[in-house]
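User: what does the whole thing look like in 3D?
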Amino acid sequence: MLDESPNGGREAVDGEAVAAVAKALAHPARVKIIGFLLSRAGCIGGDIVDEIGLAQSTVSEHLRILKAAGLVVGTIERPRICYSLDPSVLAPLRALIASIEAHGGPQTGAVCA
Amino acid sequence: MLDESPNGGREAVDGEAVAAVAKALAHPARVKIIGFLLSRAGCIGGDIVDEIGLAQSTVSEHLRILKAAGLVVGTIERPRICYSLDPSVLAPLRALIASIEAHGGPQTGAVCA
DNA sequence: CATATCAATCGGCAATCGACGATACAAGCG
DNA sequence: CGCTTGTATCGTCGATTGCCGATTGATATG
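Assistant: Here's the predicted 3D structure for the full assembly of 226 residues, as C-alpha cells:
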C-alpha cells in the first residue's frame, strides 16, 4: 500500500505537500483537463485545446503546471505527446480529506474552551 | 450517505466546484489552520495566530477564505468565535480524487491513438 | 463609564497568476 | 529541402493574492 505514515496515521498535516497538489487542482481549466484525461486513456494536447476553448499556449501552460505537480505525465510519443494521469501524488491530499471527514461534522462536540 | 450522484458515479467532473474547494486548500497556511482545527475540537482564532506565526489580520483573511469556501464555520460564541470544520463541501474534490485513483496509473493502457 | 480582549476590515505594497499572440523548436512527409 | 503538424517558450498585460500595520467594532469586566 506504500503507506507514508510511520507513526500510525495520526500524523501532523504536511501543509506544503497538500497545498502543492491542491494548487494544481485550484483552477477550473485544469480540473477540466483532468476530467478530459479521465474520459480518454490519455492523449493529444490539441484535443484538449479544442475541448476547453482556451488558446493553445494557455493549455500548454496548464499542462506544464499539472506536470510540475506530478499529476500528469507526458510520454513523448512522436510526433505527439501522450498525456496521462499519475494518481500517486494525490496521497497527501487524500489523507487530509480523509482526516477531515473522519473528524466529524461542525456540531460534533464542537464546544469551545 | 447523502450521495450527490444521481446518474451513478460516472458523471462529468464539476470543474468549478472542485476548483473552489481546492483553491481553499492551495495554501500552506490554510492547510496548517485546518490541521490545527483537526487537533482541537474547534476554536479560538488567537491560538491559530500564535500557532502558525502570521499576523492576526492575515490569519483572519485566511479564515475568511476558508469560511467562504464552506470548509470552516464560525459559530459566534461571544466574546470568541468557535471555528470548526465542515466536511460536506469536500465531496466533489473527494469524488475527483477517487475517480483519478480508480482510473489507474500512467501505464494502465495508456496507449495513444 | 473606562478598559481590555478578540475578531474583522481597510489601505497599500510586492509577487504571482492567467490569458493571449507571436514565435521557436522538433519530427514526419511531399 | 520546404511544408505541415504538434508542442513549448517568450513577453506582456490586467487581475488577483498574500502579507502587513493600523484601525474599527463588539462585548465582557473592573
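In plain terms: Chain A has one domain: 15-101. The first strand of chain A starts at residue 72 and ends at 77.
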